[in-house]
Amino acid sequence: MGGVFDKCQKGVNYQARHPTRANGADNTNRYNQSPRSLAPPAVLPRPQDDGQRDIYMALYKYEARTEGDLSFDRGEKLKILDYSGDWWLAKSLVTHNEGYIPSNFVAQVKSLEAEDWFFRDCTRSDAANRLMVPSLVPGTFLIRESETKPGTYALSVRDESSGFPNVKNYRINKSTDGEFYISAHKKFPTLQDVVEFYRGGDNAGLCCRLTDSCPKESPTTKTLGRDIWEIDRSSMVLVSKLGSGQFGEVWKAIWNSKTPVAVKTLKEGTMSPEAFLAEANIMKEMRHAKLVNLYGICSEKEPIYIVTELMKNGALLTYLREGDGKYLSLRVLVDMTAQIAQGMSFLENRGYVHRDLAARNILVGENNLVKIADFGLAKLVLDENYVARKGNKFPVKWTAPEAALYGTYSIKSDVWSFAVLVAEVVTKGMMPYPGLTNAEVLDQVQRGYRMTKPQHCPDSLYRIMRKCWLEVPQDRPTFEFLYNYLDDYFVSQEPEYKDPEGF
């Protein structure tokens, strides 16, 4: 390989100094340990079969996309006939029609999930971001499962009594006889009763009276429909080009004349179709709230289409440079990095490596929600296309030295890239290593140089970035640690829970 890479081989021999450790063993240090475990959410037991067991409530409106689907309105009750897979067979108790429905659009009647104020998988920082949306009124609230005590709950409320919006948090305790309370002087048999009481005329010791439930966005369906993976190319209409990159072009498209999607068209010859199909079957199992949802593929001829959910605000890099992202506060920017670390922690736990983690491969939805895109594609690109001989296509400034010099990719090389991404975010899209060429970065980094602290980057955040750039890959933090650290970055400076006043 010529150019930049030949010059780097003349520098310090990285592999000789840091041989791969047997069995992939990690050094034990505090950055590879999580400050709190990511415990799985508690699962509510199914209610007694009182005739309501198979009756579900629609949480969102859904319009049928295929002949076999069932349309329904928010609040409509449905009887589930078959629970198989992500698409359940249901009968509407309103229209009496039958068809398949997305299972994540409904919840069992009388369950907590059926309450519009209940957010099970919601962290404290996520609650703060949701409740700080400018259009919300004081008293807007949600109840979430406690992060520190799974199976218990917390109330988060928007308060403006100090003259500016902030979010107050109250622990909802549970007595030995199963009653719920915020103040020990007033206990309730259910969370629904807690909400009803604090929605009353008096704030009853809270910062303010509870008013509206925090809005929920409609989720994306896990696939476009039941048993849909290989998509008929003729059902896809490309509407407008959103961008282009090393893999191909990205388009806004309409599927089946009604469903907006994003389509990535892969350049012919970019990768082996056989290798892509094998990898796509793995990628479709990687489902997480912080990963872009892969709907399906069009692979019967080239160019191959990758069909994903459409993210309203496009690539994070463009959003920060040219969109509303350039007005975001540091608090929101750090939260974005926490969301990315959360998605990468999911991949980390499954032994999956991204290989091309950068702001250009992160997509932005509503309310500054971000998701990771293009995971797994980089390793499929044929060498002569991906690693150009002049080095101009290789993402040098984002790539860990062991990956750039020797092709040794791992989740720890993703950790290195993540810290470069953090620099992109806090500078709102500035090029990493300002003033240095790709060749200079490769040469200097292997000699121990690291990117200087970006403008407006707090010292504490930069210290964590430097840990991600440690020379020995196994000494770098885990993504689980990074997620927990960043998710608590501002929250840890505030009291965890507020006590009710006047009780």
TrEMBL record:
Binding-site residues for ATP, renumbered to this chain: 264
Domain (Protein kinase) ranges: 236-490
CDD domains: PTKc_Src_like, SH3_Src_like
Signal peptide (residue range): none
Region (Disordered): 15-50
Keywords tagged on the record: ATP-binding, Kinase, Nucleotide-binding, Phosphoprotein, SH2 domain, SH3 domain, Transferase, Tyrosine-protein kinase
InterPro entries associated with the record: Kinase-like_dom_sf, Non-receptor_tyrosine_kinases, Prot_kinase_dom, Protein_kinase_ATP_BS, Ser-Thr/Tyr_kinase_cat_dom, SH2, SH2_dom_sf, SH3-like_dom_sf
Domain of life of the source: Eukaryota
A Pfam entry, by short name: PK_Tyr_Ser-Thr
Domain SH2: start-end pairs: 117-214
Residue intervals of the SH3 domain: 51-111
Enzyme Commission number: 2.7.10.2
UniProt GO MF annotations: ATP binding; non-membrane spanning protein tyrosine kinase activity
Polar residues bias locations: 25-36
Catalysed reactions listed for this entry: L-tyrosyl-[protein] + ATP = O-phospho-L-tyrosyl-[protein] + ADP + H(+)
Family according to the record: Belongs to the protein kinase superfamily. Tyr protein kinase family.
Name of the protein this chain belongs to: Tyrosine-protein kinase
Source species: Acanthaster planci
Protein encoded by which gene: LOC110977841
